[in-house]
Design a protein that fits this description.
Strand order of the largest sheet: 1-2
Distance between the termini: 28 Å
Number of helices: 6
Order of helices and strands: HHEHEHEEEEHHEEEE
Radius of gyration: 18 Å
């Protein structure tokens, strides 16, 4: 994924730099950065994580990102399906939402896993969306989506979580009418839905986000 991201940048004459495990991101490092992409923090270690350590978004880091945004920087905050979560506080819901709140964003991510049993790329959690919010009057959304519809591209969401815009914010892409989400791992955060498997049959009463929403 990171190699693909670097290639996307270089094709547009954009330099992409990926911070390495153990490297501290500083205001000086961000001074000339026009887009800061923040992945969900590492929740547990394995044979594949190398020197990386389990981490959380510390208050100093959140304040640095808030200052970066206040000074005109653009941030992409990444979520992840809850089945990848570790113990509290190492969950996407707790970490990403603390970051979003700290930088003044109104959107939040849900503690869930996106699924679609009918329209998928071979697995219920490998989803390709093509319903873009082209009717939005938000200039930022219009700029992001310029040319996307005509390109024939789809939005790839693999092991993703849903995004809550009820408090404000503008959607960019929607799920299909058959897309929904479940609570795939404890603890339940922001809802009281039972833990389910991606292979369990759909039940609107146990879905975190019901079909079509």
């Amino acid at each position: 994924n990171m190699t693909n991201f670097i290639n996307m940048g270089t094709s547009q004459n954009i330099q992409v730099r990926i911070a390495q495990p153990g490297e501290t991101i500083t205001p000086e490092l961000l001074k000339d950065v026009s887009l800061f992409v923040i992945s969900a923090p590492l929740k547990y270690t394995s044979d594949y994580t190398g020197d990386a350590k389990v981490s959380a978004f510390e208050p100093d880091f959140i304040q640095m990102v808030a200052d970066y945004v206040k000074n005109g920087g653009t941030v992409v905050v990444c979520g992840l399906a809850d089945y990848q979560d570790g113990r509290l506080p190492y969950t996407s819901y707790q970490q990403a939402n603390a970051l979003l709140e700290g930088i003044g964003a109104k959107v939040r991510i849900n503690d869930d896993e996106l699924l679609d049993q009918e329209k998928n790329g071979g697995q219920p959690y490998r989803l390709y969306f093509d319903r873009f919010n082209t009717e939005s009057t938000d200039p930022a959304v219009q700029q992001i989506l310029a040319g996307v519809a005509a390109s024939g591209l789809t939005y790839s969401s693999y092991s993703g979580c849903s995004v809550n815009v009820s408090a404000g914010g503008e959607p960019i892409v929607f799920g299909h009418d058959s897309t929904y989400s479940i609570n795939s791992k404890s603890p339940a955060q922001g809802h009281d839905k039972p833990v389910l498997s991606y292979s369990d049959p759909y039940d609107a009463s146990t879905a975190v986000v019901p079909k079509g929403e």
